[in-house]
Structures are given as C-alpha cells and as structure tokens.
Amino acid sequence: MNRILILFAHPALEKSRVQRRLLKAAEAIEDITIHDLYETYPDFMIDVPAEQSLLLEHDLILFQHPLYWYSCPSLLKEWQDLVLEYGFAYGREGDALKGKTLGSIISSGGSRMSYSNEGRNHYSMKQLLQPFDQTARLCGMDYLPPFAVHRTHDMHESVIDEHSEHYRQILWRLQRGLPSKEETNSLEYLNDWAAE
Amino acid sequence: MESSLLQAFIFLAAGVIAVPIASRLGLGSVLGYLIAGALIGPSVLGFLNDAESLMHFSEFGVVMMLFLIGLELKPSLLWRMRMPILGLGGLQMALTTGVITGIAYFFGQPWQTALAIGLILALSSTALALQILGEKKLMNAASGKSSFAVLLFQDIAVIPIIAILPLLAVINPNDHTGPHAESHESASLIAHLPGFQQALIIIFAVSILVLVGRFLSRPLFRYITESKLRELFTATALMMVMGIALLMDMVGLSPALGAFIAGVVLADSEYRHELEANIDPFKALLLGLFFISVGASIDFDLISTEPLLLGQIVFGLITIKFFILLGLAKLFKIPGGGKYWFSFALAQGGEFGFVLLSSSLEGRILPKETIDILTATIAISMVMTPLLILLNEKLIIPRFKEAKVTGPEADEIMEEQDSPVIIAGFGRYGQIVGRLLFANDIPVTILDHNAAHIERLRSFGYTVFYGDTARSDLLHTAGADKAKILIVTVDDREKAIEIVKMAKHSFPHLEIHARAYDALHYHALKAAGADYIERELFLSSLKMGEKSLKALGMRAFHARRQALQFAEHDQRTTDRLGKHLNDNKRYISEARQAQEEVLKILRRDKWTNRTTEDHAWDSTGHK
C-alpha cells in the first residue's frame, strides 16, 4: 500500500469552502498523513530535518493548495526552498526522494475552460504546473497529473460534496496503486483517471 | 601508611581549625593557613618536621593556580596585556633587584652574592598575592590585573635567573662550607647541552604543549566524557597538569609557566569550565598545604637568636619593595586605592625565592648562614603580607572609598573596551539581548551597577563591569567612541532616560536602543533621543494573546497575522498619542478613537465575502 503524505497549504482556511471540504474528505481515509503547513509554521520557521524525515516515511507526496498566481501559497514555496535541499533531494548523493511520486491537488476560481490556450489564463493547468513537474523530475520522482476543482467561487454546496467524494475515491485508489506511465502521460487531469 | 595518614590528618585538622577562625576575625584564609603551619611546625608543637619536602610537594598548587589563570586568559587578552607585563613587570624586577643588590653590596657582600640576593628577593609570591586578591575579588580590577602582570613576568624571569645563578658563585678558598660541588644535580635533563640546543629543545617542548593543547586535547576530552565517568575526567585533568609540569621540569622551564601556557591554549576549549571545576578543589587544597608549609618553615630559633637583624631585613625588604611598587603604580596610573592593593600584595618574598635558595645551597652559590637568614626573611615577609593587607583594608582604602561616590571600584573597567555593542543593565531583559548577540559572535561590553548581581553573573561566565552608565567617562572607557550601538536595559526608569540623554549628547554617533517600561516611559525615552524603543512587556503579551486566539480555535497563521496587525496599529497609536501627553482630555479621546479603529481593522475581514480567488487571500490588505 502506498503511504500518502498530504502537504496542505492554505493561509486562510477559515475563509475557504472548497479546500476545507476536500481536507475533510482526505481525513476520512485511514493511514493518510495530513500535514497542515500554515497551522504548523505560522512564523515560517520550517523545521527542515523534521520535514525531511516525514518525506522519507511516505511514498506519495501530494501538494494540496489553492492556485495563487499560477503557483502555490508562499509557505509551500518556502517549504520547497528549504526542505528539498542539495544533498538530500538532488545533487551529489541527493537521492532521498528517488522513486517516490509527487502530485498536486488544486482548487481554482477559474473554470477548466479558462485554463487553455484560448482561455483567459492562456495555458493549460498541466502547463502551468510544469515547475512542479520539473521539481519532481530533478528529485528523481514521478509527477502525477493534477487533481483540480475549478470554478470554486460560486460553487454550489452539493457540487462541492461531489468533488470531495471524488477526491476521497481517488485517494483510496492511489493508496492501492498509481496510474500507469501511459495514463500519467495522456491524462490532463487526475480527475479523469478512469476506473478499472 | 599510618604515619602519612596521620600527617595528612594533622594538616587538614590544622587548616580546618585555623582557617575559619582567621576568616571570622577578618584576617583572610592565607593568614589562617600560615598560623596553622607555624603552630604544627617544628618550633612550636613539632607535629610537622619536614616542612621543606611538604613545601616541595605543595608547590604544585601554584602550578595548578597558574593553569587555572591561563584558562581564564584568551591569547588575545594576553596580547592586550603585553605592555603591563613587559613594562610594569620588567621595571619592578630591574628596580627591585638593583636597589637590593646595592644595599647588600654596601653592607660588604661581594657583588656576585649581592646580585644573587637581589634577584632572589625581587621575586614576589604568586600564590599569596593571587590568593589574597582573589579573595578580595580584585582579580578583574586594575590592581589585580597589574599584580598578575608583574607576577607573570617574574615567573618568566625565574628561568634566566636559574641559568645565571651558578655564574655568581663566589669561589672562596677560606670558605668552610665544604668542597665545591663539581656539578650539582640539576632537575633539568638537558643542562649539560650547549645553549642553542637547550633553546631548541625548549622551543620544541613548548610547541608540543601548544600543539597537543590545540589539536589533541579536544578528541581526548570527548573520548573521556563519553565514558560518562566523572572521576575519569578529573583524573585526566590532573594527569594533564602533572604531565605538563614534568615536561617543563625536564627541559628546565618553570612548571608554573608551562601550566600557564597550557591554560591559555585551552582557554578557547569548550571543556574549559569542566577543567576549572575539576582542578579547582585540588588547587585550593594544595595551596593551603603550601601556606601551612611556609608557616612551618619559619625558624623560630633563628628569630630568637637574631631578632634585631631579621626584623631590620624584613622591614627593609618590605619597605623597598612597597615603595618601588607604589612608584610604578603611579607611573602606570593604577587608579585610587588600587595602587595600595597592588603594592601591599606584592611586597614580599616568594615561593620561587625558596626554590632559588635551595639550589643556591646545593650549588654553593651563597653561604649557608646567608641562606638561612634569607629563607627566614622570605617566610616572615610572607606572613606579614596578610597583616599588611588587613591594615591596608582597614586604614588606607576607606579614605579612597569616601572620595568615590560610586561604590566599589573593584569591578570598574580598567582598560578601554572596543566592542561594537554596549549593554547597560544586564538583568533579565538585557541578558536575553546579550545572549542573542553572543550567540552570533558579537563582542559585547556589559555594564551593571548591582554588585551582588554582577557577582552572580560572573559565576555564569559573563564579564560584567561595575559602573553607573550615566557617567560619560565610564561610557567612554566602555568604548562608546568606537561602539555602534548602546542598548539601555536598566530597570530604573529615570536612570534609563538619563543615560539616553547623556549618550545622545556625548556620543551622537551611537545608535541607542532602549527598553521602555510602559507607554509614558516610551515617550520620555523618545524625547530623550532613543533611536529604537521596545516596550518591555509588549511582545510577550502579544504572543500570549496570539496563543490564546489559537487555543480558542483560530487558525495559527490567522492568529499570528491578527496579532501582528494589532501590534502595528498599536505602535502607530502610541506614536500619535505622544503628541498629546500634556493634554489629558485630548489624550483620552484620541486613545478611544484609536481603540475603535483597531476593532474596525481587525474585524473588516468578517464582512468581506468568503472568496479567496479574485482578491488577495487576506482582504485586510485593502485599506
């Protein structure tokens, strides 16, 4: 079974509807570690050794966060800058994360349509997440297609529930097996990962 | 076995009985030991008959003492002391030797003998002087440091003196003291080698000492501490000091000097305090024994047969040494009563004198009668020292105290400091500031004016100077000219304002950081010219509020932001209210208005939509 670590980053969860519900869904599954970064490090003083040993204990690392300016909230960026050290995550003898898998769980106000070459955001979600893809590659990790919830700002409660339930199922499946290489390459979104 | 146990018991019992009594009477522990020694010595009770061998054994206490002193002295500090060591120490030796030699020559001694006597009597007692000054807590004062400089020079000078003495032997065919020894057995294994080889070997030995201290001691101590056996560390420390003494003896250097060098080398070591703690009890015990043996070696028979002669010589010796020291103290500007502490503490013969005398006896350098008289002279002058110190303390020093308003000059700064930061007031607040700076390797000069407090801080290893920071001359000596920042963390509110005003006026280049008691104090400090002011309880209270918000269920990061925003607003309000200090009505109305504003700001978030997408995630950013 894949040991899953969710690195959760939301600076104002008290104002969020979607992320809160997604988090609840993840909590409903056994044996998933949820690490709430903004709650742990309100002063941005990240405990690097603790974070690194947490990484070593898991196989699948998921960044779960709202999309801010086509990237993650600043604390998660700080986390990457500090925790993914030379000699640990990359570089000479930096192979601690080799063979593990990275994924992104995104919420975004814009519609799925807007994330295309014709849309307002001009690039697809997968294109915009290329920095994460390359980060994973440099660390010798595989990078999954993103699981994303779009158009969140006026989303109806029942739709949020549907997305949350879908997220729960995806996590449950990921615990038991990852998408194949072909699936990973062809899928735009992990949301579209077909049931076997 | 039984007899040595009995001997040890007698020494200890004599010390245990005599020292507390002497201390109670205000005579000091040294005099207590000396009296105890005299009582159990051959002339009075006769418990102790071989004082000389005991002295030889207990001289090791002096070695340990110099090792401990070395531990306190980093090489950089020693380098700063080079002027007093060479100037003050050199002049003391030269002048005292010259005068005593002249007098001895005048009384009909051949010049060689006169010079030998001069050299032997010019030395002072390191053990006695440092013990006394340490007991009076003067080691960090000008008098203590100068005394130390002189004693260190003497310890170094002993080496060439030992080399010179045999050349001063007067060959006198009518002398009945027996045939001249062809070659007296020297402790040094290399004495027969030519001079340059000796020099090379000595340099080699000292290099070994420094290298071992620098590079081998750390892994050794780590290995020993990992065994977790406390007594093993003690054994190692003792072994090390003894090893140094042996090595130095072998090459003909003074063991005390070698131990001192080793101490300096280890002054940077993280095991420094552990070493101090382990060696110190042995040092204290051995020094006690040493003083007992000095007391026991007083030849009361000789005193009773030649009371007048001995009295005159002792009086002459102490007077000569005292006035030369006093003149030098004036020349080197030792302040106030420190001159007298310095002069009285060093105006005696020393333990190295005994050593030189016994080698003079073996080498037939001086006649036996002269040596007996000189031995008695040195011993009596040592016994007189604590008495003179007592006199000084009771009669001379009080006159200086009256002239000074600021209390004990003991801990005042002797030489100019040059740290970039000066902290005035090292209480709970100043200590945290200081510790953060220390942790970043920033040298800090600390001033405080509570003597008891300073004493306690010293025991934790801080160098704290006594002083009233509101005095600009003291701040000058503390290095205010070169410093960048003055941190005012004194408890006394008025004092803090006074210090800031004075510093702003006398040292305008200084950036002044001040701790404020409350908002009113904050305004007063600001008016006085402080550049950065922190209200002492503000940040702590703010943190407490933040943690309480979190405990009530607020997200940690949100609580943090709320606290920071509150702080920012409060700071602005405080500055704004400062303008209305004299208008109470206006002050109160402004304060109320500010209170409403902060509520509005901190609650604004509640009324904005729960969207995080199209706005920045924290809408309080929109003012």
UniProtKB/TrEMBL annotation, chain A:
Keywords on record: Oxidoreductase
Coiled-coil regions, chain positions: none
Entry annotated with the keyword Transmembrane: no
Domain Flavodoxin-like fold: 3-170
Entry's Gene Ontology molecular function annotations: electron transfer activity; FMN binding; NAD(P)H dehydrogenase (quinone) activity
Superkingdom of the organism of origin: Bacteria
Protein name: NAD(P)H oxidoreductase
Transmembrane segments: none
Stored InterPro entries: Flavodoxin_fold, Flavoprotein-like_sf, KefG/KefF
Iron-sulfur is among the record's keywords: no
UniProtKB/TrEMBL annotation, chain B:
SUPFAM superfamilies named in the record: NAD(P)-binding Rossmann-fold domains
Record domain RCK N-terminal: where: 418-537
Coiled-coil ranges per UniProt: 577-604
Localization annotation: Cell inner membrane
Protein's membrane topology: Multi-pass membrane protein
Pfam families with a match to the protein in the record: Na_H_Exchanger, TrkA_N
Any single GO BP term: potassium ion transport
A GO CC term assigned to this protein in UniProt: plasma membrane
Origin: domain of life: Bacteria
Record-level Gene Ontology MF annotations: antiporter activity; monoatomic cation transmembrane transporter activity
Transmembrane segments: 6-23, 30-48, 54-73, 85-107, 113-134, 146-171, 196-217, 229-247, 284-303, 309-328, 340-361, 373-391
Primary localization: membrane
UniProt xrefs under InterPro entries: Cation/H_exchanger_TM (IPR006153), K/H_exchanger (IPR004771), Na+/solute_symporter_sf (IPR038770), NAD(P)-bd_dom_sf (IPR036291), RCK_N (IPR003148)
Keywords: Antiport, Cell inner membrane, Cell membrane, Coiled coil, Ion transport, Membrane, Potassium, Potassium transport, Transmembrane, Transmembrane helix, Transport
Protein family per UniProt: Belongs to the monovalent cation:proton antiporter 2 (CPA2) transporter (TC 2.A.37) family.
PANTHER family in alphabetical order: K(+) EFFLUX ANTIPORTER 3, CHLOROPLASTIC
Protein name: Potassium transporter
UniProt source species: Leucothrix arctica
